[in-house]
Design a protein that fits this description.
Strand order of the largest sheet: 1-2-4-3
Number of domains: 1
Shape: globular
Largest sheet: 4 strands, mixed
Number of strands: 6
Strand content: 25-35%
Order of helices and strands: EHHEHEEEE
Distance between the termini: 51 Å
Structural class: alpha+beta
């Protein structure tokens, strides 16, 4: 069964992060919130994200939380934070693999 990503991603009431309800929506979220991602934004993902998104230097686990949206309790979430050094943010492009995995690509300018 295919799921469509939401038009807009919701923020938690009690945590400074966006809710991403399914791991396959991560590439869509990145496309819609690119600046937020590059500037160290946080997102909450289901526990199943541990298989697809293990700790990486650029996308790492910072917390575990039971969060709320519009006063309603959501499922237990893993809070990830994007982490790109400020000095290379202008040189990064995020690439999405066929399996939905996300990889940062650093563009190197030719210096002459």
């Amino acid at each position: 069964m295919a799921y469509n990503p939401p038009e807009e991603y919701e923020r938690y009431d009690d945590y400074d992060a966006y809710e991403i309800s399914r791991t396959e929506f991560v590439p869509d979220f990145i496309e819609k919130h690119y600046d937020y991602v590059l500037n160290g934004g946080k997102v909450g993902l289901p526990i199943t994200a541990l298989d697809k998104y293990p700790n990486k230097p650029w996308f790492h686990i910072v917390d575990y939380a039971r969060t709320h949206i519009n006063g309603k309790c959501k499922y237990f979430r893993i809070i990830y934070q994007f982490n790109f050094p400020e000095e290379i943010r202008d040189s990064i492009v995020l690439s999405v693999g066929e399996d939905g995995s996300v990889h940062p690509v650093i563009l190197i300018k030719n210096r002459r």
